[in-house]
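Hello,

Our lab assistant flagged a job as stuck in the queue for most of the afternoon. It eventually completed. Since we weren't sure the result was trustworthy after the delay, we are filing this so someone can double-check. Below is the sequence as submitted and the structure that was eventually returned. Let us know if re-running is recommended.
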Amino acid sequence: MARMRPAAFGLTVVRHGETRYNKEKILQGQGIDEPLSETGFRQANAAGLYLSNIKFTHVFTSDLLRAKQTTAAILKKSKFCKDVAVKYDARLRERKYGAAEGRPLSDLRTMAKAAGEQCPSFTPPGGETLEEVKARGKDFFEHLCCLVAQEACPENKAEAEGSSTEMAGRSSTSSLTNHHSRLEFNSDRGAEILDANILVVSHGAFMRSWVGYFISDLACTLPSALSKTELSSVSPNTGISRFNITLEMREDSKPKIHCVFLNRDDHLGEKMMAGNMEL
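-- returned structure --
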């Protein structure tokens, strides 16, 4: 069997904009579906301007309102992606905090202390454990890898599945094969040609868990200047992270992940926010 060619994709991950509950430090989780505040819309517009020159081939977002509104604002500013189909995925939701949702963050800390535990490892009644959140993230990431592997390399899919010549020919018109996008954010290795450029909009606790999975399970390489504090911190509202992923297309190989940058928020400078009043 001929060796299947590697596939590569860029992954841009954005946290949703601020809500009133974020400002007041009240836990939203999955049960509080709060819209963006005026500041949140400004942040989302600023993120959209920052990302406006990137041609995303796929867009995924949590199905919670604050993430959906952030995604819509980002795409509205885009020069290339105004008509891209947005896929809403419940696997990208924030961690479920159960009995602590709708209550101040300080209450969660009090509950954890009473149970002899510490945040964020403490799971309130009816909430998700960190392992359950990680499992959601792992499942979604594997979905992305399969999507890119199959659509970017239709000949691989045809060979792996024993498809007929007719099916393989039809697969070659896949939406990703004509979307080789130049990497807009240069890595240490310089600009790369990608088979897909994917945007994901999600939530702070989920994103922190996802990055942890990339590092602990997939040996993600990190920028040399990244501190341990930055690595463990929750992304600011509309913080942007960028990853390059290479798939070796072998059953026994893990995806290779490089973090280009993590939780970047320089698009939220005072001048940018002051001049970005459209809601």
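-- support follow-up --
The delay was a queue issue, not a problem with the job. The result is valid. Residues 12 and 143 are 16 Å apart (CA to CA). The mean pLDDT is 85.
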